[in-house]
Amino acid sequence: MSQSVRIKVKKLVEGAQLPRYAHVGEYGDLAADLYASEGLILEPGSTVLVPTGIAMEFPSTHGALVEDRSGLAVKAITTLAGVIDPGYRGEIKVVVTNLGVSAFEVKPGDRIAQLRIVQRIQAEFDVVEDLGEATRGAGGFGSTGV
């Protein structure tokens, strides 16, 4: 059974769209779509902030991660720097980079990214002399053979 959390959303511009899930229910989406509130041209190799026209109030127990939409990622349009802390109240803007060779047009109302709601866990970090053994060990990038 899924948990529900209430998040307050303030529209900062007329026509801004609230995040929403394309598929809901037992096998619904993991993240809600975020929508651009204004149009722009994303030139090859450029990084821009795409405004959504909304601000959000998360409960202190939750925040969000802004992540790629797979349909845009395959077109070389990717998101960066996507952590929204519970105390942030400003406009949600999506950092987008065009890794492709052609300009990409973002229109108002386009789905530009996904918003994944996450529970906030505050960890404590302890300095130790040794770490426990694990199958992977210190193997880094590419250590799984992929």
Q: Please state roughly what percent of the residues sit in beta strands, choosing from under 5%, 5-15%, 15-25%, 25-35%, 35-45% or over 45%.
A: 35-45%
Poorly predicted runs of 5 or more residues? none
What is the CATH topology classification name? Deoxyuridine 5'-Triphosphate Nucleotidohydrolase, Chain A
Please name the fourth-level CATH homologous superfamily: Deoxyuridine triphosphatase (dUTPase)
Which SSEs are present, and which pair or pack?
Layout: E1 8-11, E2 32-35, E3 40-42, E4 47-57, E5 62-67, H1 70-73, E6 77-80, E7 83-84, E8 91-98, E9 104-106, E10 111-119
Antiparallel strand pairs: 1-4, 2-10, 3-9, 4-8, 5-7, 5-10, 6-8
Give structural notes.
The chain is mainly β and 146 residues long. It has one domain (11-119): Deoxyuridine triphosphatase (dUTPase) (Deoxyuridine 5'-Triphosphate Nucleotidohydrolase, Chain A), CATH 2.70.40.10. It has one helix and ten strands. The chain has one helix at residues 70-73; strands at residues 8-11, 32-35, 40-42, 47-57, 62-67, 77-80, 83-84, 91-98, 104-106, 111-119. The mean pLDDT is 93.
